[in-house]
Design a protein that fits this description.
eight-stranded mixed sheet; 261 residues; two-stranded antiparallel ribbon
């Protein structure tokens, strides 16, 4: 029957059909979009979550960021995105390593309620839920300034997997102490004078979380970092290629960078 129905390469086509075939029970009530906005594909997404974590041996270091599933059609949950090459689409928070998505959470879904009840924002609640899906404790995850804050640092380390996090943090509203703030210099000469200035502070006294390092570094402007993974603050020597006008070619140049950066 299979051979007669599918013809040439019937075995392969039959396997593909079985993988993607799905049915719905018309007797089941359709859930509300408020709680289940992706209900049509929820079983498929749940299976992806399961397979992704089985397919990848997650290492010590990873990253957490937003991903864009771009498309050109119309949908009520489609986000307007003009700052990424993918264009408009669905937004997904995810944890990844070396380009492989390990776990994810669609932003159009309600954030995990148990973290919302603890006082976390929907963004932080999604991130902490993703950290709970990691395979073991003490992973080090990098994030950008959309996510980083003192509260997230504490929540990540006191959570199920004691995740250590680090990354750039916004200077206001995220727990950066006044003692590390640096004033932005509009005058280029004044900016050159303070370039390379580092200020640092360590948060202490919270038994649920080890010391949190907060550091400011003046480069082209004042930049702020927060970390529960850093063990030291020091300069390290780096090397990069720059174009030499006199030699008319690229040459290697050594320079210093804070180790946290």
């Amino acid at each position: 029957f299979v051979k007669d129905s599918f013809g040439k390469n019937s075995e392969k086509k039959w396997k593909m059909w079985k993988l993607f075939f799905g049915v719905q029970d018309p007797r089941k009530a359709t859930p509300t979009k408020k709680t289940h906005p992706n209900w049509k594909i929820d079983p498929f997404l749940a299976w992806m979550q399961n397979v992704f974590r089985l397919a990848w041996n997650f290492g010590k270091f990873g990253s957490c960021d937003e991903q864009v599933i771009g498309f050109t059609g119309k949908h009520e949950d489609k986000q307007r995105i003009n700052y990424k090459d993918e264009g408009d689409g669905f937004l997904v928070d995810s944890v990844a390593e070396s380009g492989f998505t390990y776990c994810f959470f669609f932003r159009n879904q309600p954030a995990p309620n148990h973290y919302i009840r603890q006082g976390y924002s929907p963004t932080h609640a999604r991130v902490l839920h993703l950290f709970d899906l990691l395979p073991s404790k003490n992973h080090v995850i990098g994030l950008d300034n959309l996510f980083m804050s003192v509260k997230l640092c504490t929540g990540a380390y006191s959570g199920k997997n004691q995740v250590q996090i680090h990354g750039v943090v916004r200077r206001t509203g995220r727990g950066v102490p006044p003692c590390v703030l640096q004033e932005f210099q509009k005058n280029q000469k004044e900016a050159d004078k303070v370039r390379g200035t580092i200020k640092a502070a360590v948060f202490e006294g919270d038994p649920s979380c080890p010391s949190i390092i907060c550091m400011s570094y003046y480069d082209a402007k004042d930049v702020y970092f927060m970390s529960t993974a850093a063990t030291e603050i020091k300069w390290v020597e780096k090397e990069r290629k720059v174009y030499n006008k006199e030699a008319q070619k690229l040459v290697r140049m050594k320079f210093l960078r804070p180790k946290i950066v």
